[in-house]
Every structure is written in structure tokens, then in C-alpha cells.
Amino acid sequence: MxxxxxxxxxxxxxxxxxxxxxxxxxxxxxxxxxxxRLDLYYESLCPYCSNFIVNYLVKxxxxxxxxxxxxxxxxxxxxxxxxxxxxxxxxxxxxxLLNTIEACAINVWPDLNKHxxxxxxxxxxxxxxxxxxxxxxxxxxxxxxxxxxxCYSSGxxxxxxxKYGAETYxxxxxxxxVPWVVVDGQPLYEDYENFISYICKAYKGTTVPNACSNLSxxxxxxxxxxxxxxxxxxxxxxxxxxxxxxxxxxxxL
Length: 253
Fold this sequence. Notes:
Low-confidence stretches: 19-30, 220-227, 247-253
Mean pLDDT: 84
């Protein structure tokens, strides 16, 4: 476990340092003008969300695909409004805490590399069932905890969560579970782990990113056959009839 964390934070250091320089090529300009929107609706303590962030989403930073992606993280998930600006989280008060902390991180560090590094650190601890040590991420990354602490203690973090809740509830079609991954407005449903193929298909720029050069429709179909589709369902955590039909159809393609 210790070795895994060492590898993870070595990556995070590289992420912050190696990607901080401004792009200086015409190709980079072309990428930025044709970015694909990628939305991740998730909750901090769903094990399938942490697995997706730690083992799948991180790949777009490692392979350079982030240059053509506009990534939007929404830490609300399957939480429920209870009236009077209160809400409950699917995995209890600890999840409400971490959802709010991650919302604060996004707010106080608008730079994607910085807030994703923090969320990646926290979700690595969730993935390794050690999430109560989340505050160690500040020291590991060399980040000042004060702005996040102020955001949380002042109640502003709660307001951010209410905003994320409204955004999640406004989804059309409504989300059925998390992680709920959306590429250019289209939800990927159970095939979310194959999101890179969908990004590459949606990208309309003239310069094809290296990460997409070897991908094809066959890759997408293979992903549908191989993925186990583990998710945290809304409310009663049972798969809807519509979801079952979509999955059955996808594996027959």
C-alpha cells in the first residue's frame, strides 16, 4: 500500500510540474479550440467512483488527452435534498464531509491540475480504505489547507454542494447511478470505463491526439463486452429496467 501511494504521488508531482508550462505550438492551439466536454458526476465514498478516478480518469493526464478535454467534476452523486438547505449522502456523514471538501478544493484551486491532484489523492485513500487520513493530502502535495478549511467551516462549501446538487438533479436524462460519465452531453451509462474512446470519437479537431491514434469503433465494442459495469445506484441501488435493456443491447452489438 505504501508503495502504491509513493507511485501515486510521484505522478501527482509530475502532473503539477510537467504540465504547468504554457503550450507553444499550433497543434496545442488547435486542441484547445476543439475541446470535448467531459462531466463526471460522482460521490466521494462510492468505491466505484474512487476506482474510476484513480485507475481510469487519471489516464487522460498521463497520455496527454487532457489537452483536448474540458473536464468538469461534480461531487454530489446520489445525495438527497432534505429541505431547508439540508441534504443526506448515500454513504453517510463522512461522504458529505468529503464531497464538500472536494467541492471546496475545486473552488479555491480553479486550476484543473491542482484540484484534480488533491481529489486524486483523497480518492486514492478512499480506494485503499484509508480515507480518514484525507488531511494528509495537503502535506503530501505541499498545498495550504487554510483556504479549504475556511471554505468548509464558513458554510460556503455547503452552498457549493447545494449548487452541485441542483446541477445533478437537472440532468436530462436523469442520472441512475454513479459514476455517471457524460461526453459532450451524452451519458455513457454502463460503458463509462471506456470513456476515452468516446472522447476520441467526439473530438472534431484537425490534429488527432496521440492517445486517439490507435483507437477505433472496435475498441468501443470490445469495451462493452469486457466491462463489468460496477456502480452505486440511486435510492434503492437496484438497476432500472431501462438500464438492464440498454446493457443487454450493448453486449449484443
